[in-house]
Design brief:
The chain is of the alpha+beta class. The chain has a single domain, classed as Gcn5-related N-acetyltransferase (GNAT) (Aminopeptidase, 3-Layer(aba) Sandwich). The chain contains six helices and seven strands. Helix 1 packs across helix 5 and helix 5 runs parallel beside helix 6. It is globular, with a radius of gyration of 15 Å.
Length: 165
């Protein structure tokens, strides 16, 4: 069986999100499967989403990326700066799930971050568990239905990661 992650990583581009991405990001966020896997399972209104996106784009400690293949958005990864590293969270376009895109986009971003990274994944979200593991994170603990994954720093801390700039 061919390695789908490797196939996608050759074509995958990560770019910083812009306000023009609001529509597709809201569509992905309100997808029933996405909502089920999210900490907040509520349906998000367009107004709420617009305000959230404005805050994200203005926040120096958060970077939102859109993954594209041939200019077509296929997923998103958010990087939140924390005192001891970065928290990653992601969503794969519903049309691209089970294709290896999630593994490719999160791994690509994680490779550019030498500091520690972590992710919180709801229990039972097998796809995100596999994505975290592919990005080098290992299970740390379970707390109230949330699995905590972490990868320790891979280089000397202190420099800002290329991917999070």
């Amino acid at each position: 069986m061919p390695n789908r992650t490797a196939q996608h990583s050759n074509k995958l581009q990560l770019r910083r999100a812009t306000f023009d991405d609001a529509g597709v990001l809201l569509e992905w966020r309100n997808n029933p499967s996405t909502r089920e896997a999210s900490h907040n399972t509520d349906l998000i209104s367009e107004d709420e989403h617009v305000q959230w996106l404005k805050r994200i784009l203005a926040n120096e400690n958060r970077k939102l990326y859109v993954a594209e293949i041939d200019g077509v958005p296929v997923g998103t990864v958010r990087v939140d700066s924390e005192a001891l590293g970065y928290e990653l969270s992601w969503t794969v376009s519903p049309a691209m799930r089970s294709s290896g895109i999630g593994k490719a986009m999160v791994s690509q971003l994680a490779k550019g971050i030498p500091e520690s990274i972590r992710a919180e994944i709801k229990t039972g979200n097998i796809a995100s568990i596999r994505i975290a593991e592919e990005a080098g994170m290992a299970f740390e603990r379970e707390e109230k239905g949330v699995l905590h994954y972490r990868r320790d720093a891979v280089a000397q801390p202190g420099s800002q990661p290329d991917a999070a700039r």
